[in-house]
Amino acid sequence: EDDRRWAVSKDNGMFDQFTGATITPRAVVKGVKSTLNYFNQHKGSLIPRPNACGEALSTAKLTTSSTTPPISGAANEQ
Q1: Nearest 5°: CA angle at 38, between 34 and 40?
Q2: What domain range is 15 assigned to?
Q3: pLDDT tens-place string over residues 10-58
Q4: Is residue 70 a part of any domain in this protein?
Q5: What is the pTM of this model?
Q6: Radius of gyration over alpha carbons of the chain, in Å?
Q7: Most C-beta atoms within 10 A of its C-beta, which of 6, 8, 20, 28?
Q8: What is the count of structural domains for the chain?
């Protein structure tokens, strides 16, 4: 969807950017816009629908990977 409001204010959009930084805010605005467009185009397959019995139908499958290491406590420290 081509909506000019989805831009940082420096590009005549409606989103503020950080002082001295526009690359990261531009990427964030672009990413959020793309995500919302994807959701709006595919929401029927993304959101479970109730069946005739009122139970939610879900086509998503939960998978786990044993190769992913747990996050250490040090990873959250700054």
Answers
A1: 115
A2: 1-43
A3: 888 887 776 666 667 888 888 999 999 999 999 888 887 776 676 666 5
A4: no
A5: 0.46
A6: 19
A7: 8
A8: 1
